[in-house]
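From the shared-data thread, chain only:
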Amino acid sequence: MKIRAHAESHVVELDDGSQWQIFPGDLATTLSWQPETDLHLEPSGDRVSSHVLVNTTDNSRVRVIAADGTWVDGEVKNVLKDG
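Structure, as tokens:
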């Protein structure tokens, strides 16, 4: 999948029309993403996110939830605190 839009730093729209919120602690990973970046969506076993987006070029991964979803505050704070 390719990026259709990444106008907001924390939301990415893929060429299949799906929209995903990027985990706050993973935003820096997305700074190098370009429209031609090839991404693969996978289910996540993470307690914070439902899926991960994997950059197929460098295998970097970012945790995501559906764009209309809500992060679980306590879990996000715990993960960010723990690094």
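Residues 3-82 form one domain.
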